[in-house]
Amino acid sequence: MGCLLSCVACCFCDAAASLCCKCLPSCRNSTSTRLFYVAIFLTVLIFSCICLSSDIETMLKKIPSLCPGGDDDLCSLITGYGAVYRMCFSLSLFFFVFSILMIKVQTSADFRAALHNGFWFFKIIAIIGIMVGAFFIRDPQFLYVWRIFGLIGALLFTFLQLTLLVDFAHSWNEKWCSGYEETGNRAYCCGLISFTAIFYAVTIAAISCFYVFFAFGPTCHFGKMLVSINLFLCVIFSIVSILPAVQEKLPSSGLLQSSCISAYIMYLTWSALVNIPDIKCNPTLRTINTTTTDENGKTIEVVTADLNFNWQTGVSLTILFCSVVYACIRTSSHSAVGLLMISVSLFVMPLFLCYW
């Protein structure tokens, strides 16, 4: 019995992140730890999506301790998007405190590294405890304040994604250029040209669609301005990437990086355009018509945006997950990008999820 308990106890410490070592490729303990953190983040992400369901919202409203007296105003603060904000707040708080504890931890020899790589049972219990406590925060100002943090986190994570994308495209371009120089295989050169052309084709197609569908109306000034500014930025990036001074300083730079950034900028532009509340400038906007009664007893019709799961949300979540996984793998190197990502990624990502 004691032997069995000791085996189970190991799973609560530094062996928890290595449970799948027999069925997965071998990796260092630090890498498996980051993968375990990604699994925690993904779990919270899934639960956040589930909390947006109307059925879950109805179920939470039936819990007396959360919604005493069935007060709709109070229940609305802790269900739907309120539940997502509270879950993301809990995860952000956990990673923020943990990042403070891990300052200047550079090797596994540091005694704090054991806390980073182990004690998973207690860390999961801590996250769950913070989440449960967050649901009892009923102050309406909580959502307003945390929405501001989410906005700041979304901005930081956008820059983090750009850093990841530049790092990925630079490594990709450098590897294929080296392959062509060492082997003389033209497949590397054709591949670089093909992918660069594909990314630029996607950019041009996206800009054309944006002007036709989101910036065509006479009142769509915001859409026209947004698309035009981002088009100008894409042109500037492309020109700068092939300047002789840049090529001399960074021989591995080229149009592949600028084409990737241009395609990503088009995604960000699309994300902004599909959230324009004017249906004349946003043909993808889905609305819900409801009727209510004003103070004078007159029936009025209210049109609100349908915020259910859509394509933009799905693409955003996919890019978010890919960024998390790439950041986790990339931090195993000792590059400057890796040092940047290991310090901010896990704290900023829950903030981005809140704003999303």
Automatic annotation (TrEMBL):
The chain crosses the membrane at residues 34-53, 83-103, 118-137, 144-165, 185-214, 226-246, 309-329, 336-353. It is found in: Membrane. Residues 1-18 form the signal peptide. Pfam families: Serinc. Keywords: Membrane, Signal, Transmembrane, Transmembrane helix. GO terms for cellular component: membrane. It is a multi-pass membrane protein. The keyword rRNA-binding does not apply. The keyword Transcription regulation does not apply. Belongs to the TDE1 family. This is Serine incorporator 5. It comes from Hymenolepis diminuta (Rat tapeworm).
